[in-house]
Amino acid sequence: MKYRFFLVRLWQDHNQTFGFLTIYNDKGKPVYGSIVIERGIVDGDDYNSCFDAGIYDMVWEYSPAFNEMLWEIKNTPRKTECKIHVANTYKELQGCICPGIKTKDIDNDGYTDVTHSRETLNQLHRSTKGQISATIEVIEWF
């Protein structure tokens, strides 16, 4: 059985989406959890908007844009290259997911940003070490 990523989106507006990501191992045991931010639904801009809720395959692959191995969400409608990567604010995202440990309004724009994204992403990678494919289920609870 593959590892399962489970993303619950709790809040969203046209700029940002806020939620929680939990990863379950092949025995169904939770092995990772963090807060996450994504872009919101940007009218007429599928490239920068978050991808639709649903169930998707994921692969562990090299990203030339980030020069590192990352989890990529595959076959999302109207989007490609949806990854889980380091960022701190929604402005640094183009439809991808950013994990963090704490929340803070880093850039004083009134939005919840995340801190320690690199450290959190490294923990996610350690938690899924040895895996090359997974699934992610995204639900919206708002």
Features:
single chain; 142 residues; mainly beta; two-stranded antiparallel sheet; globular
Give the helix/strand layout:
Elements: E1 3-12, E2 16-24, E3 30-39, E4 54-63, E5 68-73, E6 82-83, E7 98-100, E8 102-104, E9 113-115, H1 117-127, E10 133-140
Parallel strand pairs: 1-10
Antiparallel strand pairs: 1-2, 2-3, 3-7, 4-5, 4-10, 5-6, 8-9
Q: What integer value in Å does the Rg equal?
A: 14 Å
Structural class: mainly beta
Low-confidence segments: none
Widest β-sheet, arrangement of strands = 6-5-4-10-1-2-3-7
Arithmetic mean of pLDDT: 96
In the CATH scheme, the class would be Mainly Beta
What percentage of residues falls in helices of 4 or more residues? under 10%
The number of helical segments is: 1
Question: Would you write up a description of this structure?
Answer:
With 142 residues, the protein is mostly beta strands. It has a single domain (3-140), classed as L,D-transpeptidase catalytic domain-like. It contains one helix and ten strands. Strands 6-5-4-10-1-2-3-7 form an eight-stranded mixed beta sheet, with helices on one face. The relative contact order is 0.26. The model has no long low-confidence stretch (mean pLDDT 96).
Summarize this entry quickly:
With 142 residues, the protein is mainly β.
